Amino acid sequence: MSPFADLPPVNAGVPLLEAVGLSKSFGPVQVLKDISLGVNAGEVHAIIGENGAGKSTLMKLLSGHLQPTHGELHIGGETVALTGPVDAERRGIVLVHQEILLAPDLTVAQNVYLGRELHKPGLVGGIVVDDRAMNAGARQAVRDLGADIDPDVVVGRLSIAQRQLIQIARVLLVPHRVVIFDEPTASLTPVETDALLKVITDIRAKGVGVFYISHRLPEVKEIADKVTVLRDGRLVASHPASELEPVDMARLMVGRDVAKLYPDRQAETGRETVLEVEDFSVPGYAQNASFKLRKGEILGFAGLVGAGRTELMEGIVGLRPGRGALRIGGKPAQFANVDASLKAGIAYLSEDRKGKGLLLTEDLRINLTLASLDRFQRGIQIDSARERAALDKAIAEFDIRASRKDMLAGQLSGGNQQKLLLAKMMMTDPGIIIIDEPTRGIDIGTKEQIYKFIAELSAQGRSIIVVSSEMQELIGICDRIVVMRGGRLVGEVAGEHMNENEIVVLATGVKSGEAA
Amino acid sequence: MTDLAATNQKVRKSWKDIDLRAVAPFVALALLLVLGAFANPNFLGIDNLLNVITRSAFIAIIAIGATFVIASGGLDLSVGSMVAFVASLMILFMNSGLIADSALMLFAAMGVAVLVGLACGLANGLVTTVGRIEPFIATLGTMGIYRGLTTWLSQGGAITVKSPEIQTLYRPAYFGAVLGVPVPIIVIAAVALIGAFILHRTRYGRHVLAVGSNEDVARYSGIPVDRVRTVTYIIQGLCVAVACLLYVPRLGSTSATTGLMWELQAITAVVVGGTALRGGVGRIWGTVCGAFILEIVGNIMLLSNFVSEYLIGAIQGAIIIIAMLVQRSLVRK
To answer: Considering the entire predicted model, what is its pTM?
Structure first.
């Protein structure tokens, strides 16, 4: 069935959705300047750019969440002024949000049909929801995305990747002519990403137009028909995807050559073991994990989403109950909470920097010193002058791009939030740093910086554990990579064996040829 | 986007940077004063104003404690019952005759009130944190317990200070004045100063706001979330005890209806003062201002003939809704 059968017809031969001279200002700040682009039926149009380039703002203009300051939108050749997202949806333009917007206490099916519940037929049935039909519909919608999730399950129990898929399934149930994906793969594993790309290929084949935002350039190369690059709110290039290689895209995004993403490191790993984990279990998530971390080492943790990497790390630092032996510098240790592990010199940076890392509604200074307030005390008072000095230093040291020092953490871009989180945890002067998904949802220029910081920290003799779902990044910066699968440490790769193939084989438990 | 590190440009604060939500309660208070002056020429008299502020002391002091609880994301419905319970135990102790000397007895009784207040707060804190029960439910439970115990202690009647000597000795604690300023007003100022210092200047205060703002971030930052929460309830208990120290000399008596609905007035004062009910923001001076507003509205109604004073509960209820609507419209950009 055509996804837009229920929509009014539009003129053929013109772009389904076209922006002409679109500009957007917030107060005195102009975030988009004179953008013109469009998407045709059966076309995937990728929009790439660094964080802060204006991609998300552009998508919000196209989907009616924001109204342009100048310029206009054409749908099927006719000028329209979208009054809001509901108006856009009515015209067949739907947006898959970057953030997960689902009710965690409702089931998969209830979320998929939220606000457009199916009802049982008949007079009385008209007010009774038809759970059976919605469960069947939700199950099919999720299957279409290449996943198998029970529609009865409460969304709160799903992983972030699974929630992302539910969100996409929910949007695709609306009759649509143009679908806008805002970084849909940021939290997906390679297998899930492949499944999503296949879905996009399918909907393109049905004649739908797709706008696609992503930081993952190889994936853009694979899926897109046309690529438009935004930089500092301007459209700097628009080419058929066949004419651009990922390295060209990166150059256009950053505005200079990105010669090397990963820093050069002479692996000067000491022999000295700073952290030894033996037979450590986090009930329900990780079993009998044993590994050693040496001084100055960067140790990677690879695995699929749900392999138990995050939970293992949270168990080690005292955020979850764990059993087993920990030794810090040879001495047995056990942490009941993060306060204890911080005092022992271990800092953990959560993968969920918005939900668990930073207070989004507080300013930069409050966030920076939150984990290390005992260092900013004068008597029983907090010395805010010293806090401000520390903020100045952190802004310079970690290159945090803030338009003003008293802005809220939530107003920073994702990359700058990550830098702030790193600065915050470094205030505790840890010898061991565990970073979970250090570059998720971060643009390529900032990624490069984060890698540089990690390398510098290791050069200072600090030991670092990097948990990441991006294998390239682990291979690029780590000395050694441990692979987890189903809560167990299933292998370790180092030196010449550090390649995607070997890691995928370990992470999935199948030969690389069989891996999806 | 300018790079601060590079330009290091000094960003000047302008009037646009003032958080309107922090200022709103004081503007409302000023408007009320103007309104009061129109309603009755006696309203702005120094005697009347001192009188009104003195009467707001109980709610103001309790609400300062409630600011901590609410700013950390909690709620304490038991404060009204706690006032009755603490004050009753205090009077019963005075009447016990355990200490012969009246002055010593009075000091001991004040100590008892403080200890009982701390214990009641600790109980609330432990039930919510260790027991992992929603604060609304936990303190709904203790509200019933404290009220029930008071009814049982008083056997449904009143508990009255028996010794006239102690009563005479204690009277100035409410009715006295220092340099013309009534004691209760001095106590409000002292409690507010200490509260504002703790909330805005100390590590503990920062932790309270962090826990209320996002519990997960607080825990991942190494903040002992449960301890921070428990201590907010203990602070609340202490504030209730201080309010009792002023309440007992005023009437010298308690009953099962002492402090009835005070929890709602305290919460109203906190919210009108600009503290977010969801936590993360705490404004001690706003709370004090909120308590004044509640009392002044009542006073204006008494002095003027526009509205029946029997409608005071309805007016106070309307105030909380209007305050929320105003705050919503003043969201900082």
So the answer is: 0.79
